[in-house]
Amino acid sequence: MGVERVGVSLEPDLLAKFDRLIKNQKYTSRSEAIRDLIRKALIESEIEKRRGNVIGTLTIVYDHTVSGVAKKLQNLQHAHLSEILSTLHIHIDKKRCLEVIIVSGSMQNVKKLADSIKAIKGVKQGELVVTKALF
Ligand code: NI
Q: In angstroms, what is the span from residue 132 Cα to ligand 1's centroid?
């Protein structure tokens, strides 16, 4: 496959910040970093159109001392067997737990499930990261 070269005009400040970012992310060239950004934008735009299935993670941090939170999380996960592939649980400290939930399905269902989990009292942070599923 051939490649086409394109020129991009950027303010020096913005370029300096971008170079720092890609250096931290261990990119070997600007081109590769820009290609990844474009791919990410295309995937996101397709996700927004809600076509096809997605796969990804929902990472949450919750306070397990909040009454009922663990039970609510468990009930919700048992009610969504088809969207949840796996769950990783780590005890951060005396109070806080980290859970990484691997999710898949239609964007609509995955988003709805993530929103319900984030809405549980005691769940302090929640971030859903999805990519287009290859199935
Ligand atoms: Ni825990």
A: 30
